[in-house]
Design brief:
The chain has one domain: Rossmann fold (3-Layer(aba) Sandwich), CATH 3.40.50.150. Helices cover 34% and strands 16% of the residues. The strands form two sheets. The protein has a seven-stranded mixed β-sheet with strand order 6-4-3-7-8-10-9, with helices on both faces. The protein has a three-stranded mixed β-sheet with strand order 1-2-5. The radius of gyration is 20 Å and the shape is globular.
Length: 352
């Protein structure tokens, strides 16, 4: 768990963290017993699990004994999936050495982060360090000092460290003006499995296109529920993960996100969902969708009705519905009672 230590040398000890040590809208970590319980009871002979709107990767992490396929439209999530689930071997001592060196760095010059974000989500000192670290990761990778998974692990460490001290309420739609900055940036070592299944694969693309090319015993679907685009809420993490150094604009310092928008946050969500389900090749489809159809404000209301969900899934197979009450992580302005997460399990007719 977070806070334990990995020894690097006599003079260097680094903290560690796990996949769940992150704030993220819609994170299913607290619902894992509910989700895995349904799978264990209702789904037989599962060897491959595809989590095609994987977000933090929490649900995929609940199936360490299965071959997992992860996907997310956000590159910042995809790079974390490569860290947590990648099949490539990596050197944990090397990762710990890099982390210790980054944490010991005290003087960093002006860079993309200081020029664009100082005094917003982070103070200038932390911005300078974020920019230095991200640039050094890329430089080290291009020099052959890091393999692809090691690069992903270090970027993941940086993103988690940023999230821990950002002057936000858990997302980056806005920063808390006048709020005290919470300490110095400190990276930790990801406790990622060194022996993941060789069949694990990670993707960064439109789920509707991906399902045309993959097969899995179980496809888990957790699409955005409402009009809040994840690329708006996590644009800064996306910016740092991609490290293309784009121009940013507005008070929130957002980059152009036109190519990152999800159809599942729009009026076309039901149509997109119907096309998705039609193209899935699996024995089971498990959909997470809450009961927020008309409970919140207009931005919080679910984009796909229960009627559409059931109609679409019943065209594919036999459907069962399971429900569990819970309090989700939100932006901090919602206090909606009787919130429930539902699991719609479809046993596919064709058993593809």
């Amino acid at each position: 768990m977070e806070g334990s230590a990995v020894g690097v040398s006599e003079a260097k000890v680094c903290k560690t963290f796990q996949i769940n040590n992150r704030r993220y809208l819609g994170n299913k970590y607290k619902l894992l017993p509910f989700i895995t319980g349904v799978v264990e009871k209702e789904c037989a002979g599962i060897e491959t699990v595809a989590d095609i709107f994987a977000g933090t990767g929490a649900v995929a992490s609940a199936f360490p004994d299965k071959a997992v396929i992860t996907n997310d439209l956000m590159y910042s999530n995809y790079i974390c999936h490569c860290a947590w689930f990648g099949a490539q071997a990596y050197d944990q001592k090397k990762i710990a050495d890099f982390v210790a060196r980054y944490n010991a760095k005290t003087r960093c010059g002006e860079n993309y982060m200081t020029r664009n974000f100082a005094g917003t989500y982070f103070n200038k000192r932390n911005c300078a360090k974020i920019g230095y670290i991200r640039e050094d990761i890329e430089r080290s990778y291009k020099k052959g000092e890091l393999n692809e998974r090691e690069r992903a692990l270090l970027i993941t460490s940086l993103l988690y460290a940023m999230d821990k001290i950002a002057a936000t309420c858990g997302h980056y739609d806005a920063y808390r003006k006048g709020a005290a900055y919470e300490g110095a940036l400190e990276l930790a070592v990801p406790l990622a499995r060194a022996n993941n299944r060789p069949g694990n694969r990670c993707f960064n693309e439109d789920a509707n296109e991906l399902v045309k090319r993959i097969r899995a015993d179980l496809v888990y679907i957790d699409p955005p529920y409402n009009s809040r685009q994840y690329c708006d809420a996590y644009h800064l993490l996306e910016n740092v993960a991609r490290w293309e150094k784009p121009e940013v604009f507005g008070v929130a310092k957002k980059m152009d996100r036109s190519g990152m928008k999800s159809r599942y946050c729009t009026a076309g969500a039901a149509e997109a969902f119907e096309a998705l389900v039609g193209d899935i090749r699996a024995r089971y489809i498990l959909l997470s969708y809450n009961n927020m159809a008309e409970k919140g404000n207009s931005r919080s209301n679910a984009k796909i009705s229960d009627e559409d969900i059931l109609r679409i899934l019943r065209q594919k197979g036999v459907v069962k519905v399971f429900s569990e009450s819970y309090k989700p992580f939100t932006t901090g302005r919602s206090d909606i009672e009787e919130n429930a997460e539902r699991l719609f399990l479809c046993t596919c007719y064709d058993g593809a």
